[in-house]
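Lab meeting, item 3. Inverse folding demo.
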C-alpha cells in the first residue's frame, strides 16, 4: 500500500475515534445533568419539609446569618421571647449597628442591647461560620439556634458544623418573600445556585463556593 493510500485509510479511523470520544463525552455530560436534576429535586423536597422543632429547645445563643430583614426580625423575636440569652447577627457588614435593625423590624430590643453582638467581618457563609465559632467560643456556648432562610439552611448547617463540631445546632428556618412563588424563574435560578453551592460544600469545596461563586452573587 502506498503512503497516500495508507493516509486515506487512517483518516476514517481517526474520524471514528473522534466521534466515539465525542459520544462518550456527551453521555457523561447528560448523566451528570440527570444526577444534578435528581439531586435538585431532593434539595427542593428537603427545603419544603424544613420545620423548626416544637417546642424550640432553649439554647446558649442565637445566630442570625444576615441576608434579609426577615431573618433579623426572627432572631430578635426569639431573643425577646427568652429562647436564648445571647444573639449574634453575623455578616452585618461594616458600619451596621443594632439601631439599623430594630426600628426597621418593629422591635424595641434596646433593653437587650448588652446581649446582642453584631458581626462585621463575614461576607460569605463560610465566613459566617468562622465568625460564629469565635463568638460561641468567647461566650462558652455549647448550643445554638440558627436563623437563616430555609433554602440557605442546609449549607449553613454544614459550614457551622465543620467549624463547631461539638456545638448543638437547632435550625430555625425563615421563608423569605422570594420563596413565595418557587415556580418563578428568578426563584428557581436562586435555588439552583444554592444547591450547586451546597454540593460543593458537601464535596469539601466550600472555599471555591465562597470565593468564586457566593461572593459574586
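The presenter then showed the designed sequence:
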Amino acid at each position: 500500500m502506498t503512503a497516500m493510500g495508507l493516509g486515506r485509510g487512517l483518516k476514517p479511523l481517526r474520524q471514528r475515534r473522534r466521534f466515539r470520544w465525542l459520544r462518550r463525552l456527551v453521555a457523561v455530560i447528560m448523566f451528570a445533568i440527570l444526577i444534578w436534576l435528581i439531586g435538585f429535586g431532593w434539595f427542593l423536597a428537603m427545603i419544603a419539609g424544613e420545620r423548626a422543632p416544637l417546642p424550640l429547645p432553649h439554647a446558649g445563643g442565637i445566630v442570625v446569618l444576615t441576608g434579609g430583614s426577615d431573618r433579623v426580625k426572627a432572631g430578635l423575636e426569639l431573643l425577646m421571647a427568652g429562647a436564648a440569652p445571647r444573639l449574634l447577627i453575623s455578616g452585618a457588614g461594616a458600619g451596621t449597628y443594632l439601631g439599623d435593625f430594630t426600628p426597621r423590624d418593629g422591635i424595641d430590643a434596646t433593653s437587650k442591647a448588652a446581649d446582642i453582638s453584631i458581626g462585621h467581618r463575614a461576607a460569605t457563609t463560610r465566613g459566617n461560620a468562622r465568625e460564629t465559632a469565635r463568638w460561641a467560643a468567647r461566650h462558652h456556648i455549647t448550643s445554638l439556634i440558627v436563623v437563616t432562610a430555609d433554602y440557605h439552611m442546609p449549607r449553613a448547617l454544614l459550614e457551622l458544623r465543620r467549624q463547631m463540631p461539638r456545638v448543638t445546632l437547632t435550625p430555625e428556618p425563615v421563608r423569605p418573600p422570594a420563596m413565595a412563588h418557587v415556580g418563578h424563574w428568578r426563584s428557581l435560578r436562586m435555588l439552583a445556585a444554592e444547591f450547586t453551592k451546597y454540593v460543593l460544600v458537601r464535596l469539601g469545596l466550600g472555599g471555591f463556593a465562597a470565593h468564586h461563586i457566593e461572593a459574586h452573587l
